[in-house]
Amino acid sequence: MKFILQIILIAILSAAVEFILPWWSVAVVAFIVTLVMGGKGGRGFLAGFLGVGLCWLVVALCHDVANEHILSARMAVLFKLPNYGMFMVVTVFIGGLIGGLAGWAGALLKPVKGR
Amino acid sequence: MRRFFGGLLLVITTVLIYVLDKPMGALPAIGRLIDPVNGCWANAEPVNKDFSADQKFPGIKHEATVWIDGQMVPHIHAATDHDVYFIEGYIHAYFRLWQMDMQTRAAAGRVSEVVGQKAFEFDRKQRRKGMGFAAENSLKAMEADPRTKQMMDAYTEGVNNYISSLCYRSYPLEYKLMGFAPEQWTNLKSALLLKYMADDLTGATDDIALTYLRDVLAPKDFQLLFPDKIAGSSPAIPKGTVFDKPSLTVPAVPTDTTIFPHYKTTDFGEQKEEGKGSNNWAISGARTVSGAAILCNDPHLGLNLPSLWYAIQLQVPGMNVYGVSLPGTPGIVIGFNDSLSWGFTNNYRDVKDFYEIKPVEGNKNKYWLSGKQMDFSTRVEHITIKGKPEFVDTIKYTIHGPVYFDEHYATKDGLRRMLAICWMAYKPTNEMLCIYNLNRAKNYNQFVDAILNFQCPAQNMAYADRQGNIALWGQGQFVNKWKDQGKYVMDGSDTATLWKELIPMRENPHVLNPQQGYVCSANQSSTDSTYPYYYNGTFRELRAWRINQVLSGMQKASLDDMFRLQNETYSILAANTVPVMLKALSVKLSSDGNKYIEQLKSWDYRLDKESTIATFYQIWWSCLYRDLWSGAFGKVPDQLWPTTERTMQLLQDTAFGNRSPEVNKSYKEAYDSVKKLEATIGTDWYKVKNTTVAHLTKLPAFSYDHLKIGGWGNAVNAVKSDHGPSWRMVVQMGKEIEAYGVYPGGQSGNPGSKHYADLLQNWVDGKYYRLLFLPNSDNQGNKSIKYTWKVK
């Protein structure tokens, strides 16, 4: 439950901070959320990856569906990717990776009680 | 351990972010770019976006309305001049900001600032040419007139109002890809854009190459191959037009023999094709089905995305005008208002001359002029190069103009002498005032008064009004020259070579309601030889011959006839050369070769998109042209060879000798090329010529290639590889104005918008849009209006 909550919290906070701060602020969000809420290291990575990934997937999908893939198809050609779907996958993966690494670091650095 | 690993991960994350936030080589900062919230995804415009809005603009004095129609053409209705140009500026920026920015950077030689070293040579050339100098001079004239000052100030205000509303998220996509930010707009940028057009249209001249050829060829051959006026020209101002008595005396040719310098091949660097053309014509009401005059125009320019033109309607009390505007400048360049219509084609009269400068030996700061030592003035150009230190070029200026080539600067193939340029574009001219008045003109006299302000680039301006009048002016500011003045490079130390009197612009070649019932210009010679003043230029005749041929045979012209003619692929060159080529051909044909020859014999000379024989002919012709001239002219500077039309005439002339050797050789070359094409991409004409409408960055992802369209430079539908009709317009000036138009692109400059290139296919197919010309009113009930901006 805490894990799911972490993912949702990272996703929502990421979307919110990005309206004011640069794109990499998602890493800060993932880091702080896992730093505060903790969890096993590997889970921190997953929470960050899925949280930021979810945020980016939803935002990108909203744009892409309304746009009928005009832009994503062009960007796919630009980056020599086979189709617009792959551009979406690459986008979400990069966001997820940044969030995951930051989340993992946060989980590991959380002060452990009683030590 | 856990902390160490956590710390290590934190470092890795930071490094990764750092890497993804930095542009690498030609690649943009990937992280920033792909971020769905702020990056490129934010430029994905919803296909059903509702553009209706309530806009609040500080600076707008009265309420205004913008109606946007189904083709995304805005119709601005405002109470004052200030407001209408403010809103036009805002809208141009809203849809085309990056393009405006890049094109003015290109004009000013400021591209390296955003793309780095690779644009440096281009930038330096622009600086040496004096583009900034030219724009600053014109800006002074534009700001000295209260009408154009207000027009440009309001426009700039509107553009800047839009720019100040932007953040990274709302930047046009290309800024994100190239990693730079929009900067404030200025009136100078608008002036630069007009000079960019002047350079595009009058910048290329044959002066240097002709200077060389004049010495290399015997005078008889020189006249034969490079005649001043080609025989059989059908001039823009019809033959037989009576010209007013000139108010100036044409000066006598100076008697000194040193007025033209002499050059050998060794004076040039290493040496390594056809210009821009356009068509316009107007038919008087007496010769149309409807009885109303019809005006047609298709200016041929570089085919790019975002498109050069932006369609728009502007309304204030006293002005209701529709047409195409140049994003980056206020007003409408080509179009019609509720009284009259006008179109432009380039007038190739030479307005750019070269002077060889004799520097004073031992003193770098002085040059000779008629026995006196003159001081060079200087202009210091700072070229900012992304990722590199600034480059400073000190350019010398003479009384003629800037020194283009000198000991500090030479292009790879350029002349190794000190050469200054004298160019009409350097003069403080106010073309904006022409646009201002033209957009408001009510009748022929007001049209003439307006265009007298259009000095450079020289244009053939066609006119038609609702009274059924038609006219054509060979417009521009010209110099009263002695014969051959400016045709060749001139001695810059001799005052006899200086530009002196200007020809009064009312004496420019023109015709109102000629007997023939139509006027047409397609970059051909301006006049017949009865025009009293001297001029030279790089005129082209082929399309003019064809348009005259068609229009002179047309008694009752309909709009459909006009559409058909603008899209006609008939090659007058092929019609004239195929018979002589076949006659001269004397090789033994293979069975395949025989097939081509049979097809040529029964060909209708149309360069249709899927024609394979058109491909065969075009390749054969270009091989023949090369084989005829490369021996004699391969090393001529700027590759100046006899024109296509002159070559055609010579081939038809038996005095030119037996050309079978070249015809046979080129036939074999063409045969081999076509065989290779058949084995690879095929020989459909459109596949071979590959018409491409490329994004200004040349990125294939944002471009369209292999467009299925016929034509070529030698047909009325002059669609070449990357040049062609940039705006096709047909306007019938009846009781109700009936206007049609199409251009190869779309109203939006955003590659993520469905309006980025949504007009392109109809342009390719030769189809037109009925242009929505709204009455000048506060309220509109037209069903074609899709969105409305209420502006306060």
Describe this structure in words.
The complex is a heterodimer of chains A (115) and B (792). Chain A has one domain (2-109). With 115 residues, chain A is an all-alpha fold. The longest helix of chain A has 26 residues, at 41-66. Chain A has helices at 2-18, 25-37, 41-66, 70-78, 84-109. Chain B has 792 residues and is of the alpha+beta class. Among the domains of chain B are: 1-40, no CATH class; 572-605 and 612-683. Chain B starts with a helix and ends with a strand. Classes of the chains: A mainly alpha (115), B alpha+beta (792). The interface between A and B is large, with 39 and 41 residues.
What's the gist of this structure?
With 115 residues, chain A is an all-alpha fold. Chain A is built from five helices and no strands. In chain A, helix 3 runs antiparallel to helix 5 (84-109) and helix 4 packs across helix 5.
Quickly list its features.
heterodimer; A: 115 residues; mainly alpha; B: 792 residues; alpha+beta; seven-stranded antiparallel beta sheet; 28 strands; 33% helix; globular
The total strand number of chain B stands at: 28
What's the number of helices of chain A?
5
Strand content of chain B: 15-25%
Shape of chain B: globular
**Which structural class fits the helix and strand makeup of chain B?**
alpha+beta
Radius of gyration of chain A: 15 Å
Backbone shape of chain A: elongated
Q: Can you tell me the residue ranges of chain A where pLDDT is under 50 for at least 5 consecutive residues?
A: none
- Say how many strands of chain A there are: 0
Distance between the termini of chain B: 64 Å
